[in-house]
Amino acid sequence: MKTKAFFIIVAILLLTVTHSFSQDDGGSLSISLKAAQDYAVEHNKTLKNSSLEIQKAEAAKWGAIASMLPQVSASLGYSNYCGYEMNFGGMPISMPATGTLGITASMALSGQQIIGVQLAEMSKDLSDLTKKQSEDEIRYQVAKVYMSILVMQNTTELLERSLENLESLHETTQNAVDVGAAEQTDADKLMVQVLSLRTSISSTNRSLEMLENSMRLQLGCGVNTKLNLTQTVDDILKPEAILALQNETFNIENNYDYQLLQKNSELLKKQIDLKIMGYVPTLSAYYQYSGRTYFGKKEGFNMTPPNLIGLTLNVPIWSSGKTWSDVKQAKIVYEEFQNTIENTRDALLVQERQLRYNVASNYETYEAQKLNLEVTERVFTNVSNKFEHGMASSLELTTASSDIISAQSNYISAVLNLVNAQIEFEQLLNRK
Predict the structure, then answer these.
(1) SS3 assignment, position 89
(2) What angle do CA 271, 272, 278 make, to 5 degrees?
(3) 302-330 pLDDT tens trace
(4) Which residues pair with 108 in a beta bridge?
(5) Residue 242 belongs to some domain of the structure
(6) Given CB 3.0 to 4.6 Å as the disulfide criterion, which of 108, 153, 173, 268 pairs with 334?
(7) Is residue 313 one of the residues assigned to a domain?
(8) Among 348, 346, 432, 343, residue whose Cα is nearest residue 132
(9) Coil, strand or helix at 107
C-alpha cells in the first residue's frame, strides 16, 4: 500500500512542479472542485504567459499591416559654408548658410507582406488555442490532485477504523492472557499488527500532507493554509456519469492536440504561398518635399526640386533557382507534416479505444473491490466476535485482519485508477 501511495505522490508532484504561486500564509480555505479549478486557472502563471503570447501575436499582426501603410519621416538640417563662394566658369556663386526641411512619405506593397498579415492572424489563433488547451490541462490536474486528497483521506479513515478494532481486540486478548484464558503469543501477534497499522497510518498522513501541499501550489495559497475540501468522493465519482461516458462519441475535431496540428498545417500551407510570392513584383511609391531657407543677403545655388514623386515596380526575373528551391522545400515540409497529422489521428483513435476500455475495466474493478471491502469487513466483524468468545483462533483473526487491510488498499487503488481513467478520457473527448 505504501508503494502505491509513493508512486501516486510522485506522479502528482511531477504534474504540479511547474506551477507555483504566492499568497499570505495562515488561515483556512474551504473550496469545491469547481472553485479550485477556477481559482487555479485565474492565478496560473503559465496561462498568464499564454495571454501575453496572444497579445504579442496581435501586435505582430498590426505590425505586418503597418508595413503596407505609408511611412512618413521628417528631417531638419543646417549648413554653414563659412563665407565660401563657388567659382562656376569664372562666375562666383554665393554659398550662404542654409536651413533645410525634408519630408518623405513612402509606401511599399508586395505579396509577401499580404501573406505576412495572414500568417500573423493565424499565429494569433494558434496562441489562443494553445491557451485554451493549457487552461483545460490545469483543470484536469487540479481534479486529479483534489480527488487524490479525498481518496487519501478515506484511506486514513479506513485504516484508523481498522486500528481501533485491532486495538480493542488486543486489549481484550491481553486481559484474557492476564487471567490465563489465552496465550501470550495471541496477544503478541495482535500487537505486531497494531504497530504495523500505526506505521501505515503515519505513512498515509505524510502522503496526504504532500498532496495538500501540491494543491496549495496549484491554488497559490500560503503553505500554512488549512485546506477544507467541501466535496466527497461520492459527490464527484458518480457511477451514472462514468457509464454515460461510454456512450459518448469521440469527435477527433474537438481534441485540442488535433486542432493544434490542423492549425499548424494551415500555417505551413501559408508558408508555401509566402515563398511563391517571391515571384510576384513589388510596388513602391514615394513623395519627397524639400524646403530650403537662406540665412544671408543672397540666395545660393539650389538644384534640389521642392517636390518629388517616384514610383517603382520591381519585377523578379532570375534568382538562380533560389525561389524555386524555397517553394519546393516549403511543399516538402507541408507534405511531411500531413503524414504527422495522419499518424497522430490514428494514435488518437487507438488512444480513444484504450481509454474507453480503461474506463469500463476500472469501473468493473471498482465495483468488485467495493463489494469485496464490504464482504471483508463483515467477515472481520464475524471472526472478531468469534475470537472474543473463544470460537476462532488467533490465526483466523490475523488472517481476517490482513484481508481487510488488503481489501482497503485494493479499494483505494481501484478508486484512484477509476478517477484517473475518467479524467483522461474526458480530456481526450475535450468534455467541458
Answers:
(1) coil
(2) 95
(3) 677 888 898 988 888 888 888 899 999 99
(4) 284
(5) yes
(6) 268
(7) no
(8) 432
(9) strand
In a domain, 371, yes or no: yes
User: CA separation (Å) from 140 to 29, 34, 382?
Assistant: 20, 11, 42
Phi, psi (5° rounding) for residue 55?
-65, -40
C-alpha cell, 331: 511543399
What domain range includes position 222? 2-70+110-280+318-429
* Rg, C-alpha atoms of the chain: 38
**β 71-79/307-314 pair status:** unpaired
pLDDT value of residue 340: 94
Residues 6+ apart with CB under 8 A from 321: none
> Across residues 91-109, what is the average pLDDT?
82
8 Å CB contact between 283 and 87: no
Judged on CB neighbours under 10 Å (0-12, 13-18, 19+), 334 is middle
**Cβ pair 387, 396 in contact under 8 A:** yes
Q: Which three cell numbers stand for residue 262?
A: 490542423
Longest dimension (CA), the chain: 144
Q: What percent of the chain has pLDDT over 90?
A: 30
Residue 51: HSE in the Cβ half-sphere, 13 Å Cα cutoff: 9
Residue 42: what residue type?
E
pLDDT category, 6, cuts 50, 70, 90?
very low
Count of structural domains, the chain: 1
Query: H-type helices in 17-110, by residue range?
Result: 33-43, 45-66
| Relative orientation angle of helices 2-16 and 184-219, to the nearest 10 degrees | 10
To the nearest 10°, the Cα dihedral for 188, 190, 192, 198?
-140
d(CA 268, CA 246): 36
* Residue 17 in domain: yes
* Separation CA 309–CA 16 (nearest Å): 62
Looking up residue 371, the CATH number of its domain turns out to be 1.20.1600.10
Parallel, antiparallel, or unpaired: how do β-strands 97-109 and 282-295 relate?
antiparallel
Which residue has 534640389 as its cell numbers? 304
Instruction: Considering only residues 13 and 280, tell me which one the structure prediction assigns the higher pLDDT.
Output: 280
Please give the model's pTM, rounded to 2 decimal places: 0.74
Work out the mean pLDDT of the chain and round it to a whole number: 84
401-415: pLDDT as tens digits: 888 888 988 998 999
For residue 390 the three cell numbers come to 473463544
Q: Specify whether the backbone of 163 is left (phi greater than 0), alpha (psi in -120 to 50) or beta.
A: alpha
